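FIELD: query
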Amino acid sequence: MDRTHHALDAVIEHNLRRHYLFAALSDAQWRHLGSATQVLRLAAGQRLFAQNEPAETFFVVCSGSIKLYRDSATGLEKIMRLVKSGQSFAESVLFIEPPRYPVHAQAVSASLLAAVGREAYLDLLRQSFDTCRVVMAQMVARIHAHWDEIEALSLHGTQARVARYLLGLVPNGTAASCRVRLPTRKTLIAGQLGLAPETLSRALRALSDRHLITVRGPLIDILNPLGLHHTAHL
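FIELD: result
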């Protein structure tokens, strides 16, 4: 597998230090971790790791997007999550013994990742209870958010799922109508939501017919945020 590694530059380091996994680190802790962190470039469609492969690193997406998926017993691909810029993945390997990746990971588009050494990060947690407590609190908050997402996928109808997904693309604090861009292909979004691609298309048309949104390729104009929010919680 052809994977190109580079040292961290100042811009990537600045962005990483704002991420919840690193925000609590002191300058000395960061210098220790920085030496165990590399930049990784992937081409579109390139696999990063396979399910059950031994895990030595976890990742933060600096640009592009990564698909996390599993293969079903029938050979079909089940998308577990689409990870976009600013998000991290595979942190669970910090607490798995022996550490193995629980899913496959593949670049959806050309992507730039920060690959963080597992053992170096664990060393920091061992050395500082305060840092460990802050990181664990943030991880628990993320787990709760995933529970909410699972509930939405299992209990709500198709339009509600799609409405919740679209609202998740809206920048925080935006209450008025706005335009968002779908972060990846609709077929991948459908897989993430547990829908067939044609079912996603029908849901988008239905939301459009209700004048909640308009669809122009990957661009979605959210015309009625309040109505979309109501649909998302039916």
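FIELD: remark
The radius of gyration is 19 Å.
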